[in-house]
Amino acid sequence: MKQNQEMEEIYREYCRPVYLYLYSLCHEKELAEDLTQETFYRATKSIHRFNGECRLLTWLCQIGKHLWYQEVDKRKRRGQHLPLMEETAAAPCDMQTDIESDEGKVILFQSMQSLEPKVREIMYLRVMGDLSFKQIGDITGVSENYARVTFYRAKEKLKKGLMQNERNEGE
Known about the structure:
Layout: H1 2-26, H2 29-46, H3 56-78, H4 85-90, H5 95-99, H6 103-112, H7 117-127, H8 133-140, H9 144-170
Helix pairs in contact: 1-2, 1-3, 1-7, 2-3, 3-8, 7-8, 7-9, 8-9
């Protein structure tokens, strides 16, 4: 009984960041929801293996990422189309209204869709997951320094793009 309560608390605390991370990978609301549910199901089954070497969110994101890779493999075997970056960047993200009504965040998430997948993944983990660069590196399979530099460069690119949009709207 106690383990169920603990998992419910973990779910309440980490469901949203895990969902946002998975959405950043797959760009499909329903798939991200399914992967999130499966992530917590698998976490519940294997919580005894969590040894605390990383943050719980890092562990959950690693489970989710593994599930995403399995989904990609499954789709490739079936010859199904995977969303391309250009397609997802053009369409506004449905989850934005679910996340916040704050217009600044909506604009930020829309602009993040234009980033390369690996860069976008790092941005989501830092912005939404509030993870350290070391944890981001562990999840994404890059060095801590690479995660830090990539985040900084992407942040500068987004700032520049947002400032350019503001100038264009002012004309």
